[in-house]
Amino acid sequence: MSNETDLKESKVYSDWLKKSIDNEYFNYYNYSEFKNLKQIGRSVIRANWRNTDRFFVLKTFDSNNTILKEVVNEIKLQKRVDFHENILRFYGITIAEGTSILKYSLVLEYADNGTLRTYLNEHFNDLNWSDKYQLAFQLTSAIACLHECDIIHRDLKNIKLSDFGLSRKIEMSNTPSVDKSNLFGVIPYIDPNKFNDRNYELNRKSDVYSTGVLMWQISSGNSPFSDKDYDIPLVLSIVSGLREIIIDGTPIEYSKLYTECWKYQPNERPDMQDVVSTLKEIIFPKENEIDLLEEYEINSESSKGTIDLNIELLSNSDLYYFDHTEINSFDSQQSDLEIDLSDKSIKPRKNSFDSSKSVDITEINDYYDWLEKSIANKEIKLYEYSDFNNIQPIGKGSFGSVVRVILKNTDKFFALKSFNNDESTFCKVIEEIQNFLMREGSDIL
């Protein structure tokens, strides 16, 4: 590719970032507002924001063509799944000061309790099987969420687990800089088909394989093959069928599930949603399933401890055979905005509102254009009403109504807030969305 082409592409990504900041698709923070900066990894800085005690992570990128493309791609992917409690939050972007070239930094949630490996090393003896099930359930639910959004884990690695006993989080500082020299450190987690064929593209079933290994790790408290050298002979043994030994005392249903996940043939592994469903059947008695799920969601959201899975689940974005590739084009699955009220679809257009509540038409057009651009840029995810089931009314007022629903193929509850179809309400809805996007994920950001 010529230098001229590189410059043009770099400008496209740079312009996208500038436009997104101007249009408030995400927050922009002045670099000078971050205090107590500490390097905790290659291109990863821990910092406080302003005069608070809360830590955040600044993930820094150079502004060359390849890196800018990765930044834009990661932001788009992150925004799609930012609603899930087991995805590290994306708060916005900042630009490092005092350098001759632009250095963009993503502002991310900080997990201050280490990786899953360090957490298990320190606390495994305090965990009962209920705790282990909860860790496994959060892990599989997060990966299933990525898959539902047509993302595989090698494209977005910011997964966290909630710790139910500590008031700390589990940090990223143990994530090493990744290059060819430390590839061997993640051998047990990589789909063995990749070792057999360098051209093999990691996919959803590769995530399932890695998840099976992590589920074993949760059951044992140890890193896989901790008694062996991570070298070529281990690679050959794994390709030939070597797997870890089931730990004594492991419930049969649990060990059966993770051994299904790490089968060599991808088509013999379950889908991630099947893994979630099986785990749910193991954990939750059917007669109390809904009540227990609601209680579990509350406990999960109220927990302050977070475990970072970035290293164990293939955190190797720099490996020479990893590239940023989505499974399918998100655009092919989403078309026009549809708002569905009481099973009656309404496609809002600039002239389709109740005119009894007069609002400046220019303001309406601006809001409508902003909404369309936000959806087109994947800053707001569009759901079809048919994506939800178990619809239960929970509130009604002059603004419209609220129902509780479950997103299909998940155990996640959502609230759908429907609004009256008039110009004034439409403008208020857009303002509410914009305000939410500016403050989402934090009580201070």
TrEMBL record:
Keywords: ATP-binding, Kinase, Nucleotide-binding, Transferase. Transmembrane segments: none annotated. Pfam families: PK_Tyr_Ser-Thr (PF07714). InterPro entries: Kinase-like_dom_sf, Prot_kinase_dom, Protein_kinase_ATP_BS, Ser-Thr/Tyr_kinase_cat_dom, Ser/Thr_Kinases-Pseudokinases. ATP binds at K417. The keyword Repressor does not apply. One of its GO terms (molecular function) is ATP binding. Residues 34-284, 388-445 form the Protein kinase domain. This is Kinase-like domain-containing protein. It comes from Glomus cerebriforme. The lineage of its organism: Eukaryota, Fungi, Fungi incertae sedis, Mucoromycota, Glomeromycotina.
